[in-house]
Amino acid sequence: MRRFATLGILLAVVGVAGCSGGKGDLPVTPAPTSQSPEPEESPIETATPVVEAARGSRANPLTPGESRKISDESAFTVSGGATTFDAWPTVQAENQFNTPPADGRSYIMFPLSVAIDWPTIQKQAADDGSTTDGGFSAQYSLTVAFVGTDGISYGSNEADYCGVIPNDWMSVNPVFDSATVTGNVCVSAPTQVIPGGTWVVSNVVNDAVFVAAQ
Prior knowledge:
Blueprint: H1 2-19, E1 67-69, E2 76-80, H2 88-94, E3 105-116, H3 118-127, E4 143-147, E5 153-154, E6 179-190, E7 198-202, E8 208-212
Antiparallel strand pairs: 1-2, 2-3, 3-6, 4-5, 4-7, 7-8
């Protein structure tokens, strides 16, 4: 009888041991796998749009024969002709007392035309408390100079003076209605800075139009 009891205990132990395996195994975490990171997308390069400088600016000057208002509210529309790059023969012929340009300088001449809008002139005069009864002289409201490739303007100093010239811009007649006035501007400038330069016509508040010296 004791033998059977012992055998029963052994079977019970074996049964308990067997229940600890099989379907009751703990879950296994798989080993991590090395995965190559996904390649980053390269940013798409876009071309920076090129903004063209305004027509009539120094970076994009008018060509001879083109015209533009100095500003939206201006009474003046400016145009210019071809530049004479050696104006000394013309200056010499105009007056016997004219002298040649200094060494290293040249006389250059620019034919300037300015169309004047009379109603705008009258309105501006009224706003300023003045009158146009005595006519209007555009040359006293505009400054004309040559800008060399050195970035310096020429035309306001004594050294820039050409002498007596034909159809001088500073001598154009007053106007009493909408009209176009024309005259020559002559400047003495260093010869080496003349090619590629521009003429600039500006008003009293520094609005300006540039014309290529061609």
